[in-house]
Amino acid sequence: MRPVFGFIAGLLFGLGLIVSGMADPAKVLNFLDLFGTWDPSLAFVMGGATTTAFIGYRLVLRRPSPVLGTEYDIPATSGIDRNLIAGSALFGLGWGIGGFCPGPALTALPLGAPGTLLFVPAMLIGLWLGARAGTLSFSSRKTEP
């Protein structure tokens, strides 16, 4: 059942990205252009998502274990270090230049959005190179809340 619910959650997330306009690079770039053609509508999308996630985590983490698992998978680190800052800066630069972040880019790919045929392969190559260089680490610890 876990893969089925994962697929449904991913499908809802992708549809949400499309409906909200996050899969449209022009809308994203207009949101980031504070001194030009600024479009504040994505701030409401992000605010709604943040509020939903905040409430959802508070409700879910009250449970002794996840519904479809035996224990929570919580990141091992919570500190801010050089790798986090560098990764955040690269993510932000890429988003600002291309108008895409990974989720919306993958969602926009089947829609034929301009730029996705260049952005998605470049993103995948960058992820592969980062993993080969050993700069990406996905360590986590299994803990209960």
TrEMBL record:
Keywords for the protein's UniProt record, in alphabetical order: Membrane, Transmembrane, Transmembrane helix
Record bears the keyword Transmembrane helix: yes
Transmembrane feature ranges: 42-61, 82-105, 111-131
Record-linked InterPro entries: DUF6691 (IPR046513)
A Pfam cross-reference name: DUF6691
Protein name: DUF6691 family protein
